[in-house]
Amino acid sequence: MHENLYFTKRKVNSVCWASLNPLDSHILLCLMGRPETPGCATLLPASLFVNSHPGIDRPGMLCSFRIPGAWSCAWSLNIKANNCFSTGLSRRVLLTNVVTGHRQSFGTSSDVSAQEFALMAPLLFNGCRSGEIFAIDLRCGNQVKGWKATHLFHDSAVTSVRILQDEQCLMASDMAGKVKLWDLRTTKCIRQYEGHVNE
């Protein structure tokens, strides 16, 4: 990254792979704000990070969105949220369409520190500082009651969520070092992986 033209001294809160169509690849970065510069989510072409052709002019930034206070981000490959990404903020989730600029905001009771879209089901899973894990049903608008589809709980702040096994299970880790495998059909923990000490 030290040779990259887009190297930043700002803290990267979250990063994920993104693609607007099957022929291109991008990287979605959540950058923390500073007093003089608001936080933002930036979509960069992955070609910026390849040193195969030194000296060739790099393409410019695809797009940047002012999103202060973003803790996490996730790119959607779900057809129900095509060309969309999500950012986890302080007490809310912001869903943004990069093509139209349309945004939906969902209020939460805690800061959202981890996110992942399901591929087949129209769901966005979110892990919170409070230890709560919930899914947003993407078919519901933010004004409709019942947009929270699933509730799971850890004893400390959730740092990572990953959907596994045909979207029937979810793996989550937390600040206490616990890693749990959840059955999304029964909403029960089916396995806890012991021995982890790193947050």
UniProtKB/TrEMBL annotation:
State a single Pfam family of this protein.
Answer: Beta-prop_DCAF4
Q: Which SUPFAM superfamilies match?
A: WD40 repeat-like
Q: Which UniProt keywords apply?
A: Repeat, WD repeat
WD repeat start and end residues: 151-192
Is Magnesium one of the keywords UniProt gives this record? no
Domain of life (superkingdom)? Eukaryota
Span-the-membrane segments of this chain are: none
PANTHER family linked: DDB1- AND CUL4-ASSOCIATED FACTOR 4, DDB1- AND CUL4-ASSOCIATED FACTOR 4-RELATED
This chain's protein is named DDB1- and CUL4-associated factor 4
Gene name of the record: DCAF4_2
